[in-house]
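Researcher: Here's a chain I'd like modeled. Treat it as a single chain, no partners, no ligands.
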Amino acid sequence: MYDLLIEDATIIQAGRRRVADICVTDGVISYIGDRPAGRARRKLSAIGRFVMPGAIDVSVTPSVSGGTEDWESLSRAAAANGVTTLIAHSMATSADELAACESAARQAVVSHGRWGLAGPDNAAALSELWAEGRICGARTDLSTLSEGHLARHLAVAAPLGVLSDGVERLQWLLPMLEQHRHPTHLFGVSTAAEAELLESAYSTLPLTSDITPSHLFLSLETAPRLEVPVRCSPPLRPELDRRAMWTAIKRGRIHAFASGHVPHPRPSPGSTPPAGLPGIDTHLRLLLAAVSRGRMGLEDMVEMCSEAPAKIFGLAGKGRLEEGADADLVLFREGQSRKLEVKELHSAAGWSPFIGRTLAESPQLVLIGGRIVARDGRLTDECTPAAPVRYLHAE
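Model: Modeled as a single isolated chain. Structure tokens:
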């Protein structure tokens, strides 16, 4: 007997869509097709709804100095809005520091993992933690490492995550990547010059990239119109760069979306805020709104939100709608939208630069491991602690 049967779902995958039934057993998709044999303990009708794999966000920060965000509030915000897997930036440079981060994440209600922090002398240690399946890789913003220290991380097994902070730093990094040919992911590509430089690099290097919705929906010209001052890392770019990034997405120059969520408290008018914006509450809703406006196709959005991050980082069972995959699912209707209100936010940051902006409605249903954890943006009693992510290389 199946635990759950989702009937007549319009399944969205990269490059295709189809109508089928989805069965779930023990938290895993056990059947996809027409009219499964056998009964189910629970049934859901998906007529008129799209179903996609839960979104995967590989660039979030659980807490900041002066803030109140923790893994519980961060993950509840994610679950309410269709993000079912989080990979967080951590300050862990060693096994002991990582153990503290793992302990802090025990109350997370979505699948969770983390990056280790690349330092001058911990390349071998982080590579060992990656081999054990305890981190996604080593991350750095380049400004903290010399060329020699960076080369040490490029010489070991753990993938490297790098904050993309302009074409100059990218021009400095690419020759090192050509020498070491080491898997590297760029966070927050945000300029036309970066996208153009990367187009040729992708064909010869094990290199991937993401972009945040902040850089797709805000610019230097539009930010001053907001009620509060905002800063990003990388910084907001001119309007021409913002528009160029949509073109880069259509041309396949960016591989994934990531929220870049940093839960700084709401800045005061006229102040100079720290770099970083809250984004987990609006991540998927902004992108679904862009689909409705014709900025990209729904299949492309699903690929960049779910399928590509799972493939890039080797996340076992994630980002796929197929038999044997984890039953992390998002059910939604396309085209429904309304203005974002403060009361809808779950993140402890408690604010968003997109308040008052018309976004897609919250997903109608969000499932994690076959459990319905959210309905229409409201968390359910089934929203309980979830397991850490598993990495294919460590299985």
